[in-house]
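Before relying on records like the one below, remember that each one covers exactly one chain. Contacts with other chains, cofactors or solvent are not represented anywhere in the record.
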Amino acid sequence: MAKNTELPYAAAAVFLFSACHKLLGLLILYFATGRSLGLLLSFGDTPSYLRIAQSFPLPYSDPAMLASTIHYPLYPMTIYLVNLLANNWIASGYLSIIGISSLASVVFYCIARKFSSHAFSLALLSSCLPPKWVQVSLYPLSEPVLMLFLLLAVLTHLDRRYCWSYFCLSILLLSRPLGAIFLMSFLAYDVFHERRYKHFIYAAIATLPFIFFHGYLYVLFGKILLFQHADKGGTWGGSIFSWPLAGLLSGLVDAQLTVARKLYTTIEFLLYCCVVVAAVKSLKDGMASLFSFIIIPYFAFTLFLKGDNHNWWMLSLPRFLLPLAPFGFLYYFCAPRHKYFYPALITASILLGYAYIVGSHYMHIQYGPYA
């Protein structure tokens, strides 16, 4: 295990590797697609996050921004702060997301040091896998923000700094509403596994920023806005929930979805199933038992995703399950390996990630959101 004196240098190396990896990926995407960096920002939810950022310091204050209330303010605020220095919204979007995702790799390195002598290699690997992580780390999307604060919550909890852990979870709630699941997971672990009953107070306090945010939206729009649907500006057509795995079963026979999409999502699902199996086995495994309380409820939640007009399970599962990926590295790659194992795996992961972001872009252009 690395000595404490080596930590700053190793952490800096992880950050630089991750940032350079993402910048090179952005350049490859730019030259491979022939599209400007501004035009690339039309991908997915990025226009909405940029609109929110541009509305600061009073976010969502324009009545026309009702549609953007499905996206939470933490990441747009980061873009806004970076733009105060960069004075360029496009550059601020890219710089903020690359910086945040690189910081997430650094925090993961700090966690991995507690479990493996190969923490540095695991951290480099975590910046390259899964390929979907590479993609969302290039575009101004909120997944890296959620990942960063989830990992910070884990790290501080492992260090027994519980107040800071719940503080990170409170901030997490302002990145994506799914953060509520992780808050409940930490609370369940503390209460039922560790018998720390006073952590109910920490959890209650952690919800205050979330409550204040929705109170602010209520003042602006005169109604409670939580999990908006398509008719109110969002893209969630119909109910997003159904019977467990209904999204998988209906997606496999959906003629609108490409074969590549069906195969990719199914493989990702099976790989994450392996993470869940390891989580079940480690329920009583010391510090790692915290991971089980995080993984199992969140994975169970995703089983119910579907959507009536928009198959959320088949189209978005790889994005939804990204928070579980770092724990998979800790479960399956901590043991000693051949000296060429990590360099070979990291190199292959880098190439796979670049191929994915370019291929995904072309598939999206050709087949639309069902690619």
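The mean pLDDT is 87.
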